[in-house]
# Entry
Amino acid sequence: MPDGGHFAGAHAYPALVLNADFRPLSYFPLSIWSWQDAIKAVFLDRVSVLNEYDVEVHSPSLALRLPSVIALKEFIPAARRPAFTRFNVFLRDHFACQYCGGGYPTPDLTFDHVIPRSRGGRTSWDNVVTACGPCNLRKGNRLPRECQMIPRQTPRQPTSWELQENGRSFPPNYLHESWRDYLYWDSELEN
# Structure
């Protein structure tokens, strides 16, 4: 066990979860399971273990290395239409204000109705864009042409694939070295 034999606990040693085609179920947020869920899936024969940590868990009759990468045995198709959520709007827009172009951490972002709700605009993929607080305040309830604030990209519903591709641009805080081959194996190689 690491650290002089001390086990780090439930949040340590997550397992990267791949679909049956060996691609992550999602990139952002990255598809990971706790070590407990990974071990349970192994015993229920729902996953194949592709890589392991150098850490074991013990029961009275068994010692088992913790999985670091697992693949589902049955393929789960991606949703055809992504859910309309604040986070997915930010992901579609690459976490950047569509008025000034600045990139911001999620807590500093908001979304703006291009056609304000007070003027008949709907809360939908086609009318909502990511905005920073100052731009959202400056635009207020005006139409883009009234304030010369035209979104950099026309808002539209993305595909699930587009959101996954966008998510690949934002690596997670934690990446175990055993995950790298599975996360970036289909990336374009440099010359």
